[in-house]
Design brief:
By secondary structure, this protein is an alpha+beta fold. It has one domain: 3-Layer(aba) Sandwich (NADH Oxidase), CATH 3.40.109.10. It has a four-stranded antiparallel sheet, sandwiched between helices. Helix 3 runs antiparallel to helix 6. The radius of gyration is 20 Å and the shape is globular. The chain binds the ligand Cc1cc2c(cc1C)N(C[C@H](O)[C@H](O)[C@H](O)COP(=O)(O)O)c1[nH]c(=O)[nH]c(=O)c1N2. Its EC number is 1.13.11.79. This is 5,6-dimethylbenzimidazole synthase. Homooctamer. GO terms for molecular function: 5,6-dimethylbenzimidazole synthase activity; nucleotide binding; oxidoreductase activity, acting on paired donors, with incorporation or reduction of molecular oxygen.
């Protein structure tokens, strides 16, 4: 095995308390944004920093399976919005009564309001047919891509930029809109823009759709179902 040169390693110290607080603040106050977008375009260097943050994500076998389609064209965004409306109507029909009325009252995208969208995709062939760590679970490529989404989302929070993930689409609509080849998996459509305010809790909780679960109910000790 080749020795690792000393200059390729750094000391791993805990962050200062202010730095730690900033990291946890980004995690705790990150929100999914639908309606609070401001129209100002995001500066190129800021968008670049967000993409760099996404590109620093962990990936199985260091596969880096992602691509980032940066969408500024209003016509493209209008196309995605039409695709959303179609899928959202189908989704609403799956609920009945009060639940359906509540669903219909929710704002579930900001495609037209946000000045920028980024579609993040996953290329399963990025690192050849055999990928370290993915042999027994091919979905690891998509999990890696989701790590990139989360990196971008947290970096955006720190930059004062809101991000909204929209998944209420038929993939085929987005594929044909953006010319995405069949072998590429569509992972996320993200709406981005500056925001002047954010919900302090998830909007779906504030609007009575679903509440945060107690962590205690989700943590098991040593084996499935053994509550801590
Ligand atoms: C994979 C995936 C897909 C979606 C989402 C999230 C994720 C992770 N979310 C946002 C989701 O509703 C939100 O994260 C939760 O309600 C929690 O709120 P905060 O993100 O903490 O604000 C989301 N929100 C929305 O309004 N329309 C959507 O289509 C989606 N799709």
């Amino acid at each position: 095995m080749r020795p690792v040169p000393k200059d390729k390693r750094v000391r791993s110290q805990a962050f200062s308390s202010a730095q730690r607080a900033a990291v946890y603040r980004a995690i705790e106050t990150r929100r999914d944004v639908r309606d609070q977008f401001l129209p100002e375009p995001l500066p190129e260097d800021l968008v670049r920093r967000l993409l760099e943050a996404a590109h620093r994500a962990p990936s199985v076998g260091f596969m880096q399976p992602w691509n980032f389609i940066v969408i500024r064209d209003p016509a493209m965004r209008a196309g995605a919005h039409r695709a959303f409306l179609r899928a959202n109507e189908e989704a609403a029909e799956l609920f009945t009564g009060e639940r359906q009325a509540l669903y219909r009252s929710l704002k579930l995208e900001g495609i037209l309001k946000a000045p920028l969208s980024i579609c993040i995709t996953c290329d399963p062939e990025r690192a050849g047919s055999v990928v370290l760590g993915r042999t027994h679970n091919p979905r690891m490529d998509v999990y890696s891509t989701v790590c990139a989404v989360q990196n971008l989302w947290l970096a955006a929070r720190a930059e004062g930029v809101g991000v909204g993930w929209v998944s209420i689409f038929h993939d085929a609509d987005i594929r044909s809109l953006l010319g995405i080849p069949e072998r590429i998996e569509i992972v996320a459509w993200l709406c981005l823009g500056y925001v002047d305010e954010l919900y302090s809790e998830p909007e779906l909780a504030v609007k009575g759709w679903r509440q945060r679960l107690p962590l205690e109910e989700l943590v098991y000790a040593d084996r499935w179902g053994n509550q801590e």
